[in-house]
Records
---
Amino acid sequence: MKLPPQPIDQLQTIRHRRGLARTRQALARGHLHIGFIGGSITEECRENWPWPVANWFAETFPKATIVTENAAIGATGSDSGCLRVDREIIQRDCQLTFVEYAVNDYERPTERRSRSREGLLRKLLATGQDVVLVYTFRQEMYAAMMAGEVPASIAEFEQLAEHYGVGSVWVGLHALNEVRAGRMTWAQWLPDALHPGSRGSWSYGEAIIAFLQKELSAPAGDISDTGCLPEALTALHWQSAHELPLTRVRTQGPWILKRVHETNHIEQVWETHVPGARLEFDFTGRGLAFIFDYGKKSAEFRYRIDQGPWTPVVRERPDWSGPRGMVRALIIADELPPGPHGFEMEVIHGDREECSGTECRLAQISIL
C-alpha cells in the first residue's frame, strides 16, 4: 500500500478511530490490565517508552490498580508476536494492548507480514479488548518521511487500522518533528540510529500519552460491538494459529522435556545435544511454525512433512547473539493442503564456522 506524498508537516502523528471503550470501563471498575508487544524498542526496560506510559496511567488514575504484561522481545516481528500473544497477553486478560512491529517487520515481504499482523490484530480484537498501534523509527524510513511519504511498513499497518477501527500513534514522526524543531538532538533520540535513548523514549511515550489524554477525555463510545470483526483483508491470516502441546511430540534419541528459568518468555523446551536425534508429531492445519531458544551454540536440523523429501534449515546467527537465549520464530510451512499432516525433524550439526554447537531447544509448536 503506497500513500501519496504530502508535506512532512501535514503527516499525522495521531489517528483516533473507534476509541478505548474497554479501557474506560476497566478504569471505572478500578483495575486496568495493559499489554505491550513488539521488539526491543518496546521490551521491558525503564529506558523504553512503556515505562512512562504505564506510570502516566498510575498517576492519572490513582484509584485504579494498573497491571502490565510486557511481551515484547528484541529482534522479533509480528510472526513471533502472533504465535505468542495467546499465552502472553490474551490469557492474562489484558484490556488494552499496544502493538509495535512497524520497524522489525520492515524488511519482510508484504504478504508474509500481512498474514501475521492481521492474525495478531484479529486475535486481540476478538477478545473485545482495545488495541493501539505504535509506529517507531528506523533509519531506512528517513528519506521517505522527509519526502512526505508514509513508509510501506507503516502504510500497511494503517490499512489494517482503518479496516478495524484501531487507533494509532506514529511516535517516530513525533520524535523526528522534535528534532526538526530543535527540542531534541538526533543523538539524544537515536544514539545507534535505531534504539532511542532515554530522551527519545520519553518522546515516544509523550506522543502516546497525548493520544491517551484525548481518547480518555472525549465522550465515551459504545462497547456493544467489541469483539465483532469485519471480513479479513488477508485471506491466509494467522488468527487461527494455536499451540500444539509439547507432550504430543514423539522422540527418538536422548531428548529431555525441561522447565526453563534463564530465558524470558520461554517456559519449557524439548532439549537435546545429539546430532541424529529425531522428533515427530501429527497435526491438522495448513501450516506449521516453531519458536526456539536459539543462539550460536544451536544445532541446525532437517525436516520433512508427510514423508516427503528432507529439507535442511540454515538460520542466521547475528554477531551479537549469545550461545542461547534468543527467542526465535521459524515458519516451516504456511500453504499446505488444509487437513492432517505428519512432521519429522532430525538434529544436525550445521558444519560451518558460525554453527559452533549441537544444542537444540524447541520451545513452541504452532499450527497455522
---
Amino acid sequence: MRGIEHYLPLYRTQRKWSDGSRVTLDLPLFPGYIFICIQWAQRVPVLEVPGVLAVVGGTGGEPASLPASEIDTLRSGLSERNAQPHPLLKVGQRARIRSGAFAGMAGVVVRMKYSFRVVLTLDSIMQSFAVEVDGEELEPLNGVGLR
C-alpha cells in the first residue's frame, strides 16, 4: 500500500490442529524479517509501518543489504524446493542430535561440507568419536551441558 518494494519468503508446511484436522500453511521462512528494496533516505516511511521495529544495519551505519542475485535465487528456488527454517549452526558450536541412533547425545560441530560431522564424547571412558548427520537431525545447544 505504501509503494515499498518488498519480498517475504514463505515455506509451506502441514500442521495438525487439536481437533485432528490437517491444514496447509504458508509461513515466513525467516520469522521477523521481510526484505525491502529502498534507498537509505527512504527508511523513515518503512519505520512508520505498524509492526516494523528496525532496519537491519550493516557496517558504518549503512543498512545491511543482500545481493539481488540472492533474492532472485530465493524467489525461484523456494518454488522448486521444499525449504524449511533451520537453526544456525557453525563449526565449533555445540549441538544435540534430535533423531536417529544417537538421538539425545550432544557434541561439537567440526565440519559442515556435505553433511554435518559432530564429535561426541563418552565422558565415563574419556573417549570421543565423530558421526556424520543430516542438518535436520541437529539442534543448537545454548549453554546446555553436553550429555
---
Amino acid sequence: MQMSYHDPVLLQECIQGLDIKEDGVYVDVTFGGGGHSREILKRLGPNGKLFGFDQDKDAQRNVIDDERFVLIPENFRFIKRFLRFHQVTKVDGILADLGVSSFQFDSPERGFSIRFDAELDMRMNQSDQMSAKEILNTYAEEDLANIFYQYGELRSSRGIASAIVNARKNQLINSSFELTGILQKFLPVKRKNKILAQIFQALRIEVNQEMEVLKEFLLQIPDLLKSDGRLAVISYHSLEDRLVKRFIRTGLFQGEPERDIYGNFSVPMKKMGGLIVPTDEEIARNNRARSAKLRIATLSN
C-alpha cells in the first residue's frame, strides 16, 4: 500500500539533470514516496537498474514492484557499503532530495510539524534511540544554545536554551505545544511560525545528524560516479545548500583546496549549469517546493 505523499519536487529538472541512459545504474538515496524513482524507472530499459535508500519504515511500504528496482532500508550515509553488497561499485547517476518528506510533516505522531500537538520525536529512523524529546530534556544549556544557533540560525539561541532548561526542572518537556508554551516570549505574533520552524529544524537536524550524514554522503560521490555520471541534489535550507555548493566547487566543506606551484588546484566535481529553483506554478501546486534548490554536478575528470 502506497502512503499518501505529495508531488516530487523539481521532478522534470532532476530527470533532465541526471541525463538517464536506458541501461544505466541509478540511485535515489531519499526514496520517500517513490515519485522520483518511478520517473527514473520510466526511462530505464530492461537492463537498467535503480536502487532506492530510505531508513524510514513508513517509506519502505512504498516499495515499487519492478525487477529493475531494489529498496535498501538504510541511511544513505552508507551508500558505498550497501551498493557494494549488491556488487555495484560505479553508477551513472545519484539523486538526493534532502530534508523531511511531506508525508513525515503531515503525520502528527512523527513530531516533525509545528502544526500538531504531538510528542517531540522527529526521528527519520524510528529505530534510533535519540529523539527531540531526549535532546530537550537531557542536553546541557550550552549545547542546546549551540544547536539553535548553528542549525536554526537563531539570534536568541541562548535565551531559548535557558528557558528550556529552567522549565524542565519542574516538568519534562514532551510535546510540541508544551515547548511552544515555554517559549512564548521568544515568539512575536508576526514571526511566530518562522521562529518555531527554525527551532524545530535545529532539533530535527541534531536528532538525525543531518549535516554529518550529508557530508559523509557527498565525500563518497567521486568514487561512486562513472566518468560521465551525474549527481542531483535538492536542498531546502541554506545550511544544506552551502555544503553541497561548496563540495561541488572545491571538494571540501571549509577552506580552499591546495594549489600547485602554478596556482592551479584540482577538484573532484564540477557543476553542470546553474542553480535551479522551482517555477511559480510548481510552488502554487506544491508548497513544499518553495525553498527547494537543485544543483547538478558531474566528475571534473
---
Amino acid sequence: MKCKINLKILVPIFLLSIISIITIYCASIYTSKSLGNLALKQFMWYIIGTIFVIILLRLKNEYLYRHTWFLYIIGNILLLGLLFFGTPINNSKCWFVIPGIGSIQPSEFMKIFIMLTLATMIHNFRSDHSDPTMAEEFCFLLKTLGIVLLPSILTFLQPDTGAVIIYFIIYLFMMFASGIRLRWFISGFVFIGIVVGTILGLYFFKEHIFISIFGSSIYYRLERIFAWKSGSGLQLENALAAIGSSGIFGHGFNKTPIYFPEASTDFIFAVFASNFGLIGVIILISIIVFLDSNIIMLGKRGIVDTDRYILAGIVGMLFFQQVQNIGMTVGLLPITGITLPFISYGGSSLLSYMLIVGILFNISMEKTRHYKYK
C-alpha cells in the first residue's frame, strides 16, 4: 500500500532537525567533553527516530490502541524501577544508564502511553454512553484521573516535576476534547485553586509548617521555581545576556558569547538566539507555528475519534513545552527544566517525539473507521 506522507508535517520536522543539530553543535563549546559529540549523537537519534516512524507507519495507530494497556503497564514498571535501580544524575533518578548505549528516560515515553490509554478510555466511554449522566461522567473522570495519578506519583518521586506537569496538561486537553460537561472543568479549577492557594500560603507565610508537612525537598523545588521573579541565577542571567546582545543577525555560527548551564538541553533556545539573532528566532518560531497549526488542522479532517482525542493530547503537550521552554529562557516563566521539542538534545526525548510524528502521519493518512478497544 502506497503511503502519502503529509509534507506540511514532514518539512517543518526536517527543518527543526537541522536547527537542532546546528544549535547543539554551537552549544558544544560549553558542554562537557566527557559527553562526547552531542551534535553527532543527536543526528544518530534522528536516524533511529526515522526508523521508528517507518515501523509505526507499517503497524498503524490501531496497533498501538490495541496494546495500550500493555504499554501503560510497562511504562509504570519502568518508572517504579527507576526508584530502585535508576542512576542518580543531578540528584534525580530519572534515567536508566546502559553502558555503551546511553541513558533512557522512561517519563518521556510515559507521555505517549498516557495519551494512548486516555484516548482508548474516552473512545470506549463515548461508545457505551451516548448521553452519559452526571454520575457516569464523574466515575469516568475518577478512572481517568487515576490513570494519570499513578505515573505522576512515580515520576514526582524521582523527582521530575516538569514531566508531571506535562502529564496533567495532556490530561486537561484530552478531557476537554472528550466533550464532558463544562461544569467539571469549572469545579476542577476551583478545587485546584483552593489547594494551590493553601500550599502557596504555607510556603510564603508559614515556612516551618510547609516543611513539616511536605518536606524540605519540595520546599527547595518551589524555591527554585519562584527564583525566576527576581531574574537572578547564573543560568537565567547569562542566557538573557547572550540573547540580549545578539542583535538582529546574532553573533554568528558557533559564537555563543557566554556560558550558561544546560546549554544543549533546557536553554537551547538561548544558544540559537545568541548565534542567529532576531531573524533566526523569527524563522524558528515561524516553523514551530506552522507545524502546530498543521497538526491542529488534522483534527478538522474525517478522522477516527480515538485519533482526535490523542491529537488533542499531542497539541497540548507540544504547545505547553514550546511556550514554557521559550518563556523560561527569556525570564517570562519559571525555570522548570522542560525542554524544547525537536530542538533540545536528548535521545529518549527525541525518540518519543518521533513516535508522535509517526502517529501524526498515520492520522493524516487513515480514513474514518470505528473500533472498540478493550
